[in-house]
Design a protein that fits this description.
The chain is mainly β. It has two domains: 70 residues, Roll (Ubiquitin-like (UB roll)), CATH 3.10.20.90; 59 residues, no CATH class. 6% of the residues lie in helices and 28% in strands. The strands form two sheets. Strands 2-1-5-3-4 form a five-stranded mixed β-sheet, covered by helices on one side. Strand 3 and strand 4 form a beta hairpin.
Length: 147
């Protein structure tokens, strides 16, 4: 693995994919510098396969050609929002409203619920839903709509 270039995909907070070409032997710090050329990553952390990337090289972290790294918000104080899951026996079926604001609409499958803390958002201070549908989810990476 000399100085071969690989393509790394980055998924940002708005779920926009980006492709970065970098040396397979690059450090995570070099990767952060490349990412900064495309987007503001101040106050953000990098995740690969659900684990936070802090130090080392791409190779040491198992990052290879065409892998995807997730850019996520860093929470002050080092904490993360807690997740609470409803028991399946407590499921209630409610009718969906056709007139609810966009941030209060849900669809079938998993939905995250929380308070919007983005001061530039029209839902700021409101309780919002972020529907993800059905699938496999990494609940260690919280929805950007709820940060």
């Amino acid at each position: 693995m000399n100085n071969e270039l690989i393509d790394i995909f980055l998924r940002d907070l708005d779920d926009n994919p980006m492709r970065i070409r970098i040396s397979a032997r690059a450090t995570l710090e070099e990767l952060r510098k490349e990412i900064k050329k495309f987007t503001d990553i101040e106050g953000c952390e990098l995740y690969f396969r659900g684990r936070r990337l802090q130090h080392g090289t791409l190779a040491e972290r198992g990052i290879k050609n065409l892998n995807t790294i997730v850019l996520n918000t860093k929470y002050l104080g080092g904490g993360r929002p807690s997740l609470t899951f409803n028991k399946m026996e407590d499921v209630r079926h409610l009718e969906f409203s056709e007139t609810a604001p966009e941030w209060r609409r849900v669809s079938r499958g998993i939905s995250f619920y929380g308070k919007c803390e983005n001061k530039s958002c029209q839902a700021f201070g409101q309780q919002v839903f972020d529907s993800k549908g059905f699938g496999v989810f990494n609940t260690g990476i919280i929805s950007p709509l709820l940060t």
